[in-house]
Design goal:
Elements lengths: L5 E4 L9 H8 L5 E5 L8 H18 L2 E4 L5 H4 L2 H7 L4 E4 L4 H8 L3 H11 L3 E5 L1 H6 L24 E4 L2 H7 L3 H7 L6 E5 L3 E5 L3 E6 L3 E5 L2 E5 L4 E3 L5
Parallel strand pairs: 1-5, 2-3, 2-4, 4-5, 6-7
Antiparallel strand pairs: 1-8, 7-10, 8-9, 9-12, 10-11
């Protein structure tokens, strides 16, 4: 099991508010910042260009090399040349968009295998918003936030399920918490991650970093974990 850190981020990838967290993830590792905007591919070229530009600016702030792995389809994710770009990464980042599309595009592909191999070799792996959801076992279509019986995410952290933008999400979609709690499988922890906030560590011991809080959600409870505090997620054999 890799001891390299995982970051589940509520929002703010590549923005100055998250620079210190991204710096801490890549510090002491290879200065290759591998970025996948796959979750935004359904939004078209303009959206992808925006994510790639934000990633470039953040890499410049950090003084590291931006490596764009431009996966837009499952066919792209099976390309040897794109998978090879992941090798030697210090940090691999999955940015926001559509969580189900991201997971469906990468699952069981050469690019995803390369990301897992890089993580096993010591690269940090981060996902923000859709990326955070996809790293868990739950990557829903955003109009259907009920937890399915079968896993839909990539399962890097298969015992955690994430609601990003948590401080805003309940206002946008007031049924999300009720539906998620009703269908949460045994042995998993449901976490709300506020904007500009990250849960860093893993796979079972984590630290809250950033501007706001992470919320442990369950029937009849909503436990706040403020920045600097630790959180333990359930162990699955």
């Amino acid at each position: 099991m890799s001891t390299a850190p995982i970051a589940l981020v509520g929002s703010g990838e590549y923005l100055s508010v998250m620079t210190d967290i991204e710096r801490s993830l890549i510090e002491g590792r290879s200065p290759r910042y591998v970025q996948l905007a796959t979750a935004a591919a359904p939004e078209g070229e303009e959206s992808l260009a925006r994510w790639h530009n934000l990633g470039r600016l953040q890499a410049e702030r950090l003084g590291v090399e931006q490596v764009v792995v431009d996966v837009r389809t499952r066919e792209d994710a099976q390309r040897d040349d794109l998978a090879a770009l992941v090798e030697g990464a210090g940090l691999v980042y999955l940015s926001g968009g559509n969580p189900a599309y991201l997971a469906d595009t990468l699952r069981d592909t050469k690019v995803w295998a390369a990301i897992r191999a890089a993580h096993d070799a010591g690269a940090a792996v981060a996902g923000c918003s859709a990326g955070a959801m996809a790293l868990s076992s739950w990557a829903p279509r955003m109009r259907d936030l009920v937890h399915p019986d079968q896993p839909t995410g990539l399962g890097l952290v298969d015992h955690v399920r994430v609601i990003p933008h948590f401080d805003k999400m309940l206002g946008w979609m007031p049924d999300v918490l009720r539906n998620a709690l009703l269908h949460k499988p045994d042995g998993t922890m449901l976490l709300g991650i506020d904007e500009d906030t990250a849960l860093v560590g893993g796979p079972y011991e984590w630290t809250v970093q950033g501007r706001q809080s992470v919320w442990e959600l369950g029937e009849g409870k909503r436990i706040e974990h403020k920045p600097g505090t630790t959180l333990t997620t359930p162990y699955t054999a």
